[in-house]
TrEMBL record:
The gene is AGXT2. Pfam families: Aminotran_3 (PF00202). Keywords: Aminotransferase, Mitochondrion, Pyridoxal phosphate, Transferase, Transit peptide. Gene3D superfamilies: Aspartate Aminotransferase, domain 1, Type I PLP-dependent aspartate aminotransferase-like (Major domain). Coiled coil: none annotated. It is an enzyme of class 2 (transferase). This is Alanine--glyoxylate aminotransferase 2, mitochondrial. One of its GO terms (molecular function) is transaminase activity. Belongs to the class-III pyridoxal-phosphate-dependent aminotransferase family. It catalyses: 2-oxohexanoate + N(omega),N(omega)-dimethyl-L-arginine = L-2-aminohexanoate + 5-(3,3-dimethylguanidino)-2-oxopentanoate; N(omega),N(omega)-dimethyl-L-arginine + 2-oxobutanoate = 5-(3,3-dimethylguanidino)-2-oxopentanoate + (2S)-2-aminobutanoate; N(omega),N('omega)-dimethyl-L-arginine + glyoxylate = 5-(3,3'-dimethylguanidino)-2-oxopentanoate + glycine; L-ornithine + glyoxylate = 5-amino-2-oxopentanoate + glycine. It is found in: Mitochondrion. Its EC number is 2.6.1.18, 2.6.1.40, 2.6.1.44.
Length: 425
């Protein structure tokens, strides 16, 4: 605990000088002072087990000692090269990151945020395809910058101001909420069967969703399109999963129209899904562009776009593209340390083991409480959908343990019991 501004003063300053939009999330947000791995500490010294990791961002734990040391070392040497000069850390990082991606995804563009990464991916898709139209799912969040806002299809972010020209939404193949429902995949550990005896299995539902996708292609976009954006699991919308095989078929249809396929791995990448390092691998597809942010820097502002040499050349042929801070040496030192920690501490394996363990425990709540409509997800990306309320998203740092998962499930369960009691009164 250390001396600093009192909570009341912080709130006052916030009201006067900071974005009024931010308190729309929480009227009285936590005032955080410190973090250590999966723990956070507030201004009164209370500790919290962080099960949302700064919105799916702190991948290896708050202030991980190895990541801290790498940042501190580089802060004492050189902060900034303005991306036009070389620095060995940038090149080392590019080599390490590209080694984690399959051929031909080998060219890396370093930027500073997920929105920026997606903006750049839009530019690349258009430069490469010589077309304009881009498709993204309803319910998708791809950022708040002007291009990315066009791809984002979440009502609360859609301002009635010009943005996102050429972006078209398409139906999200949501196996829980979608009109054709369907169970979760047979190979999902949860196998959530909807409480409807006529629900088709997810493969049958997939065909219906693909028909909708074809409908978007034939009615809402030009004959040739620039691309299609998809997250492997939809993040902001409540960790929504698609039927098996959907992305594979959709990628084929997009490519038939000359478009490129973009996987937004901002939330799903870096081992969080457990079985694979990248979310697109869980769908058995190979995108043409992959965007990444959040977990890449464990909370430090950095992001990347990875693409093929051919697409990178299409952009370079047009004109210069420049980014002052993207890939600065401090970010690259941090990014490298994060990759090392994920490997050395087997965090992808931990995501798989603890995530599946927790998913199965949480799935039991569905049978116990009527208001728990669905429990889904993969690795440490778990969604709990309340049927008369919001969706809970669980995505802790990948270093959490089974006892901590037990504790979190018990806390969640007792909150549900209290909620039900209050409702019954
Ligand atoms: N894509 C996804 C899937 C995201 O979840 C987010 C952020 N929530 C973004 C893009 C935008 O990232 P940023 O906030 O770093 O611009």
């Amino acid at each position: 605990r250390y001396q600093s501004l009192a909570y009341s003063r912080v709130l006052e300053i916030h009201k006067q000088h900071l974005s009024p939009v931010l308190t729309a999330y929480f009227p009285e947000p936590l005032l955080l002072h410190q973090g250590h791995m999966e723990w956070l500490f507030d201004h009164e010294g209370n500790r919290y087990l962080d099960f949302f990791s700064g919105i799916v961002t702190v991948s290896v734990g708050h202030c991980h000692p190895k990541v801290n040391a790498a940042a501190q070392r580089q802060l004492g040497r050189l902060w900034h090269t303005s991306s036009v000069f070389f620095h060995p850390l940038i090149h080392e990082y590019a080599e390490k990151l590209s080694a984690l991606l399959p051929e031909p995804l080998k060219v890396i563009f370093l930027v500073n945020s997920g929105s920026e990464a997606n903006d750049l991916a839009v530019l690349m898709a258009r430069a490469h395809s010589n077309s304009t139209d881009i498709i993204s799912f309803r319910g998708a969040y791809h950022g708040c910058s002007p291009y990315a806002l066009g791809l984002t299809n979440v009502g609360i972010y859609k301002m009635d101001l010009p943005h996102g020209m050429g972006c078209q939404p398409t139906m999200c193949p949501d196996v829980f909420r979608g009109p054709w429902g369907g169970s979760h995949c047979r190979d999902s550990p949860v196998q959530t069967i909807r409480k409807c005896s006529c629900a088709p299995d997810c493969c049958q539902a997939k065909d219906q969703y693909i028909e909708q996708f074809k409908d978007t292609l034939s009615t809402s976009v030009a004959k040739s399109i620039a691309g299609f954006f998809a997250e492997p699991i939809q993040g902001v919308n409540g960790f929504v999963q698609y039927p098996k095989g959907f992305l594979k078929d959709a990628f084929e249809l997009v490519r038939e129209r000359g478009g490129v396929c973009i996987a937004d791995e901002v939330q799903t990448g870096f081992g969080r899904l457990g079985s694979h390092f990248w979310g697109f691998q869980t769908h058995d597809v190979l995108p043409d562009i992959v965007t990444m942010a959040k977990g890449i820097g464990n909370g430090f502002p950095m992001a990347a776009v990875v693409t093929t040499p051919e697409i990178a050349k299409s952009l370079a042929k047009r004109l210069l593209h420049f980014n002052t801070f993207g890939g600065n040496p401090v970010a690259c030192a941090i990014g490298s340390a994060v990759l090392e920690v994920i490997k050395e501490e087997n965090l992808q394996e931990n995501s798989q083991e603890v995530g599946t363990y927790m998913l199965l425990k949480l799935a039991k709540l569905r049978d116990e409480f009527e208001i728990v409509g669905d429990v889904r997800g993969k690795g440490l990306m778990i969604g709990i959908e309340m049927v008369k309320d919001k969706t809970f998203r669980i995505a802790p740092s990948m270093c959490i343990t089974k006892p901590e998962a037990d504790f979190a499930v018990e806390v969640f369960r007792s909150a549900l019991i209290q909620h039900m009691k209050r409702r019954a009164k």
